[in-house]
Write a structure and sequence with these properties.
By secondary structure, the protein is an alpha/beta fold. It has helices at residues 37-42, 96-102, 113-123, 137-146, 152-156, 180-188, 202-207, 226-233, 246-254, 339-346, and strands spanning 2-7, 12-19, 24-31, 49-53, 57-58, 77-79, 82-83, 106-109, 126-132, 162-164, 170-175, 192-197, 212-215, 241-244, 259-275, 280-292, 300-305, 311-316, 321-324. The chain has two domains: 2-149, Glucose Oxidase, domain 1 (3-Layer(bba) Sandwich), CATH 3.50.30; 153-346, Class I glutamine amidotransferase (GATase) domain (Rossmann fold, 3-Layer(aba) Sandwich), CATH 3.40.50. Strands 10-12-11-13-14-19-18-17-15-16 form a ten-stranded mixed sheet, sandwiched between helices. Strands 1-2-8-6-4-3-9 form a seven-stranded mixed barrel. β13, α8 and β14 (241-244) form a beta-alpha-beta unit. It binds glutamine.
Length: 347
């Protein structure tokens, strides 16, 4: 079925719909990973976003039900140059089309994803609509204007607290839309993990008497979460705190720093980052549209992006706080950054 991606600035890309045939509106972003589409689809940080992959053939190893970062796909729509109809892999349980159909997510193929990516890089991330058939300009603008992602964290956080058993250190993990592999990485280190809903009060966190408070990744703009920022302020100095991505941004805001929106974000598994403490460069997995702009007082920068120089990590030895903007848990991407989970636990 013919379908169009219509961007906020009026640019239209025509292709064919696959997956679940229902119109979608969201923020259009690109991911430069060559592989890892299952992990991208199910990463809750993509809530509210239509993701386009720059790699031209997606779906060739199919979909299994093991490599998921949450129970279901979280993207609003998925755009590819070509999706593979006949995957070949011993773990494949279905193809991408069936997976998207089952989960009510629209796909769009035969799009010149390189041209689309160039538009987003030149003009910046913008909202867009995947429309089935024609849609007039007014209707598009109407849909785009009414789109909001401020409640994203509420939609993806755990509804209730739950525990993952372990005999080692106790991690109280605030779930803003946590990726499963973060939990797996703590599990591999024998941790007991208590996963708590995003709006859990600081007293309840402290009553657990954890060894580490951990702030997860998650969707949306960190500045849309003032109540959570206040809750984090009440935890600072009382327990060691670690954070990844949204967790890192919220920590920066709670400590008096600021964040800003990047022109087109960092999304992919091939982003070079320099660890300034080790004087080494690592290739990292990333998915962020916001970044820490002004550092909080008393925090030092530990990691920087070698693509554009933005802050990728920060630490306070005195307050036992350490957080990174990128994804040391990988999934998808290189696993060489998982040493940071030991650093979180060393806090
Ligand atoms: N992966 C994340 O936690 C993303 C954080 C935030 N939503 C951003 O886009 O910057």
């Amino acid at each position: 079925m013919k379908a169009n991606l219509i961007l906020e600035n009026g640019v239209v890309f025509s292709g064919e719909a696959f997956g679940y045939l229902e119109e979608a509106v969201g923020e259009v972003v690109f991911n430069t990973g060559m592989t890892g589409y299952q992990e991208v689809l199910t990463d809750p940080s993509y809530w509210g976003q239509i993701v386009t992959m720059t790699y031209p053939l997606i779906g060739n190893y199919g979909v299994n039900l093991e490599d998921l970062e949450s129970k279901s796909p979280k993207v609003k729509g998925f755009i590819v140059k070509e999706y593979c109809k006949n995957p070949s892999n011993f773990r494949a349980e279905m193809n991408l089309d069936s997976y998207l159909k089952q989960n009510k997510i629209i796909g769009l193929e035969n799009i010149d994803t390189r041209a689309l990516t160039k538009v987003l890089r030149n003009s910046g991330t913008m909202r867009g609509v995947i429309a089935l058939g024609e849609m007039n300009k007014e209707a598009v603008q109407e849909k785009i204007k009414s789109f909001s992602n401020v409640d994203a964290v509420k939609k993806v956080t755990a509804k209730e607290k739950y525990t993952v058993d372990g005999s080692g250190k106790h991690v109280a993990l605030m779930d803003f839309g946590v990726k499963e592999n973060i939990i797996r990485c703590f599990k591999e280190r024998n941790c007991k993990i208590t996963v708590l809903p995003a709006y859990t009060k600081p007293e309840e966190m402290l009553n657990l008497n954890p060894d580490l408070i951990f702030l997860s990744n998650g969707p949306g703009d960190p500045e849309d979460l003032p109540e959570i920022i206040e809750n984090i302020k009440a935890l600072v100095g009382k327990k060691p705190i670690g954070g990844i991505c949204l967790g890192h941004q919220l920590l920066a805001l709670a400590l008096g720093g600021s964040t800003e929106k990047l022109k087109f974000g960092h999304r992919g598994c091939n982003h070079p980052v320099k660890d300034l403490e080790r004087n080494r460069v690592y290739i990292t997995s990333q998915n962020h549209g916001y970044v820490v702009k002004e550092m909080p007082e008393n925090m030092v920068v530990t990691h920087v992006s070698l693509n554009d120089g933005f802050i990728e990590g920060m630490r306070s030895i005195k307050q036992r706080i350490f957080s990174v903007q990128y994804h040391p848990e990988a999934s998808p991407g290189p696993i060489e950054n998982q040493y940071l989970f030991d650093e979180f636990l060393n806090l």
